[in-house]
Amino acid sequence: MTVHMAKGLEFPIVFLVGLEDGIFPHSRSFSDSKELEEERRLAYVAITRAEKILYVTHSMRRRVYGEEIASEPSQFLNEMPLELIEDLSNGASWLSYARSTPAMASKAAVSALRGESEPIKPRTPYTGKTYNSSEAIAEFFKKKDISQTGRAACVAEGEKDWRESESRRPLFHARTVESIG
């Protein structure tokens, strides 16, 4: 099912796959800020289709026209609140890097050099409620009264222990796939 077809629907579990720059957001949107915002809006639509659990995936390498190429994780992944994501990857992932001290220090240093106290949010002429930021996504799930306490990953060979209480699960589950071919 496409994201466009899912508008207005909700599902207990949603899988959002291919969160890689060039796929989601599509490569044609990189040069046009309006197109990129439309892709961000579609990502929000996809994320908010999940009633309880959202799985997001991206690959490290992808085979395109018979040639294996490296894939960059989608910039939208960095806009999701890290504290609400459980990493189910078998090895290194964008999430382990994003949570690392050097990455956090780099983000803080860039903000300080720019003289920003907080990241600058894009301004839009629309003044109503928007759903294009990690804060809006977190607020959406808070309104659904889903626990954000998180817990340690309970993963054994890629399997999740589903016997634990529904209310203690993290909101997002992320997985880095080594290669898609």
Give the overall average pLDDT.
75
Radius of gyration: 17 Å
| Count of helical stretches | 5
The total count of strands amounts to: 7
How much helical structure, as a percent, in the residues?
Answer: 25-40%
Bulk shape: globular
CATH class: Alpha Beta
**Under the CATH scheme, which architecture would be assigned?**
2-Layer Sandwich
Strand-pairing-aware structural class: alpha/beta
What proportion of the residues form beta strands (DSSP E)? Answer: 15-25%
Describe this structure in words.
- The chain is of the alpha/beta class and 181 residues long.
- It is built from 5 helices and 7 strands, in the order αβαβββαααβββ.
- The chain has helices at residues 3-6, 33-47, 94-98, 101-114, 134-143; strands at 11-16, 50-64, 67-70, 85-87, 155-156, 159-160, 172-180.
- The strands form 2 sheets. Strands 1, 2, 3, 4 and 7 form a 5-stranded mixed beta sheet that branches. The protein has a two-stranded antiparallel sheet with strand order 5-6.
- The longest helix is centred in the N-terminal third of the chain and has 15 residues, at 33-47.
Secondary structure layout:
Elements: H1 3-6, E1 11-16, H2 33-47, E2 50-64, E3 67-70, E4 85-87, H3 94-98, H4 101-114, H5 134-143, E5 155-156, E6 159-160, E7 172-180
Parallel strand pairs: 1-2, 2-7, 4-7
Antiparallel strand pairs: 2-3, 5-6
List keywords for this structure.
Double Stranded RNA Binding Domain; two-stranded antiparallel ribbon; 27% helix; 181 residues; 5-stranded mixed sheet
Please summarize what this structure is.
By secondary structure, this protein is an alpha/beta fold. It has helices spanning 3-6, 33-47, 94-98, 101-114, 134-143; strands spanning 11-16, 50-64, 67-70, 85-87, 155-156, 159-160, 172-180.
